[in-house]
From TrEMBL:
Protein name: CDP-diacylglycerol--inositol 3-phosphatidyltransferase
GO CC annotation: membrane
GO molecular function annotation: phosphotransferase activity, for other substituted phosphate groups
Single Gene Ontology BP annotation: phospholipid biosynthetic process
Pfam families per UniProt: CDP-OH_P_transf
Disulfide bond among keywords: no
PANTHER family xref list: PHOSPHATIDYLINOSITOL SYNTHASE, SI:CH1073-145M9.1
Annotated compartments: Membrane
Transmembrane region(s): 7-30, 134-152, 164-188
Amino acid sequence: MANKLPVWLWVPNVIGYLRIVLVVLALSRYGIERKVGFWVCYGLSFILDGFDGMAARRLNQTSEFGAFLDVTIDIASRGVLSCQAYQVLGPLVLVLEGLVFTVNHRLGKNWKIVVIENSPWVVREIFRNGFRTPLGALAISGLFLMPVYGVVSVQMPKLAGMMAWKIAGVLIFACRALCGVAELFCLWRHCAYLISLTANSG
């Protein structure tokens, strides 16, 4: 019965719209004096990220639009944090994630399988089994934790000055750099593909 509704009104996608509202509310509450409201809104959006996939499978409401919406919201959510925490690095990371998503989206729903074909060992290990490998776990951890680490550092300067926190930051940035290796490889291979099209047409 539910699947008779338009795809954009399916439950997982409605959850996605709610996540967008929560991210906007979080952004409106950003700041040291209003950090509780910020993290409540952002935390709820993060929790709902798990429920949309669960709802899609339970209600048989998986769709290409839903997958696109989910990843777009994920990138936007991380981008909000990154741009608030890192004035230069944040926008660069947001652009990189957006470009990589665009490049990989054209490969279809099996893009992870396509990416690992004829790729370097480190890239294969990151993407293998849907990131369920040691290197994949480290890369995804860096992807999600770097924005959070930056915002917490801004909002809690005393914590940011502690040596243990700085060491944690080095580890998180190393994991994010690992993820960046895979992202840059995807961009490089796409550019090589486009160049080959031009060469073949000539």
